[in-house]
Amino acid sequence: MKKKASQRGSLRLTSDKAERLRAFREAPADDGRRPRPEPAHVVLARAQAAEAERLRRARAPKAEASSRALTVKDEPAKEEPSQALVAIDNEAKARREAERKEERRKKKERELFAPDAKGETALHRAVLAGDSTELRRLLGLPSCRVDCPNFYGDAAIHAAAQLGHIESLTILRDANAQTDRRNRHGLTPLCLAASKGHSQAVVIIAHNLTKRAINAYCGGYTALHWCCVTGIDAACGFLAKKGADASLRAEPDGETCLYKAATYSHTPCVDILLDAGCDANATNSDGATALLACAASGDYASLDLLIARGGDVHKADLSGRTPLGVAAQKGNLSCVSRLAAAGAFSSSTTPAGDTLVDRFLYKLSFPFAKKEGSEDVAPGGCTG
């Protein structure tokens, strides 16, 4: 009985002590008694719980529309870009894209007009192939240079003139190609076309040229010299009407255009040049006239024209050769008869002492014989 009563008393004391301790801890701070500090592990646990709550709230989804509206009122709203700024930005982007596209196009065209392994550009290849459609397409490109030279200094118009491609020449001329441009050899498209005998090409090229460009020397010859050499009388007449100077002499032989036409037996060119006012008795550097050239080549038609225009049948060159003597030496009977009819037989005797008639008849009868005691003297005083 005593043991059970003692146990009940101890339990009552223990419960009273716990009650007093709880009342001490929950008592207000202003009662004058100092509160007891919390353990360190409790403070740490409380701080960790607060940090976890803060992170949870930061990662939580946004509130409802009503609460969001309240929050937006409290916080400064982000301004949306205006339509003007958006338009300016889009315009700048479009400009940059256009610049990149233009740069790619220019690079492609530079590669297109660069000389290939043979030194030819795209324009030269189109002209050489005679492809007028491709030539027009290339000339329509913004970066195309119509006078772009190849490896040898020839522009596309040089190639067209040399080949005589009329359509290509017309296209290039209308595209403002430089028709008086010289290549590395100093040749212009006009002289190239004339030297190759392309009459219509000469007319197309010389259509817009000045007198100075028409009378320019190329390789010692003017374009009119080349026309007389190749015998393109239509181009010869066109150049004469455009102001080509027929009195100019070729270099270095000093031959006139009339002498060239007579040498190569181009009678229509001789007639055109005489109508243009050429001197029928003009001489070259050796003193020979166009009559002597006709007598040497046997061109009796040109000989008749020269005699009718005042050609001197007695005029000899620096070596003493006369037209009749040269005609007799060459055996050109037609020229001899025409010169004789013009009074050429009234000239003096040859250096051998006999007349030209004797020498001519001797040459016809015994072409390989020699006179006794003298060397074979050709008609006109030339020793053979």
Q: How are the elements arranged and paired?
A:
Blueprint: H1 2-26, H2 40-59, H3 65-74, H4 83-112, H5 122-129, H6 132-139, H7 156-163, H8 166-174, H9 189-195, H10 199-205, H11 211-214, H12 223-230, H13 233-241, H14 257-263, H15 267-275, H16 290-297, H17 300-308, H18 323-330, H19 333-341, H20 356-365, E1 377-378, E2 382-383
Antiparallel strand pairs: 1-2
Helix pairs in contact: 5-6, 5-7, 7-8, 7-9, 8-10, 9-10, 9-12, 10-13, 12-13, 12-14, 13-15, 14-15, 14-16, 15-17, 16-17, 16-18, 17-19, 18-19, 18-20
Describe the overall structure.
It is built from 20 helices and two strands. It is mainly α and about 375 residues long. It has a domain at about 100-205: Alpha Horseshoe (Serine Threonine Protein Phosphatase 5, Tetratricopeptide repeat), CATH 1.25.40.20. A hairpin with a 3-residue loop joins strand 1 and strand 2. The longest helix has 30 residues, at about 85-110. Residues about 345-355 and about 365-384 have low confidence and may be disordered.
